[in-house]
Structures are given as C-alpha cells and as structure tokens.
Request: fold
Amino acid sequence: MDQGKGSEKKKVMVAIDESESSHYTLQWYLDKLRDSIADSDVIIFTAQPNSDLGYLFASSYGTAPMDLVASIQENKKKVALLLLDKAKDICAKHGVEAETLTEIGDPKEAICEAVERLNVQLLVVGSHNRGPVQRAFLGSVSNYCVHNAKCPVLVVKKPAV
Reply:
C-alpha cells in the first residue's frame, strides 16, 4: 500500500527543563492528551543553555583552564541527559514511547529550530507563571515559541496553589 502524506505519524514535541512547571506540563500532556497521542511520535526536548563563562575568565585573569571549561560543559550535558531519562521513564509509565533530544543553545531559539528541522506538528511547552516585570527582564520561552515556532503551540500553565 502506498503511504501518502496523510498516513504519516504526527510529531509532537514536549520541551522541558528542570522546573516544576515543566514536570507538570509533561504529566498534563500525558494525562489529558492520551487518546490524541496514540498515533503520534513523541519527542522530549531540552536545551542546554550556552555557558556564560565570563565569571570564570574574570576570576582567572582572562585565562580559564580548558579542562575546567570542558568539565562545566560536560556537567551541563549530564544534567540534561538525566532530565531526559527521567522524562522518558514518566512517558513509559504512561505507555508512551518517546524519543529524546538535547541541544546546546538559547532554549527558545533551540526549541524553534528543532521544531522546524524535525517537522513537528505540535509543540507543547510549560509556563513558569512569571509576572510582567520578570518576563521583561528574563524573557519568556513560551511566548517566543508561540510567536516563532513553525507549528501550533500548546502552553500548559500550572494552576496556582
């Protein structure tokens, strides 16, 4: 049988970080959209933010040992992989097989680039519930994704306790 474009599995990407709201987002997605994801490829994505090593260079008078820089970057990668392993275990407990992916870069840009490159049909992100002042200074990954991702974006907001 010829498999046309209509028979392709949909790709859904859930972007996570180490926050509690991100964990809630993954749980919410698996609980509430269980029927919708049965025929979808699920990708769990996390970004490893670029290392701001300015403090390191300043404290060492401009010459940071390369093994120290490599160690910092390796630790960030380990944290990202542990986070993805935990997310994959959560998916498995819900009977969902998920692919995991991590990249280095500004999270909001890395997410949108991955969405486009992987041809994702739905992006699911959490909201940190920051106020307007914090958003102005820190930026909002979810807001950036809503406006720049090349697919529909579902923003999951954790209820206030």
Remarks:
- The chain has a mean pLDDT of 83.
- The beta strands are 10-15, 40-48, 98-104, 122-127, 153-157.
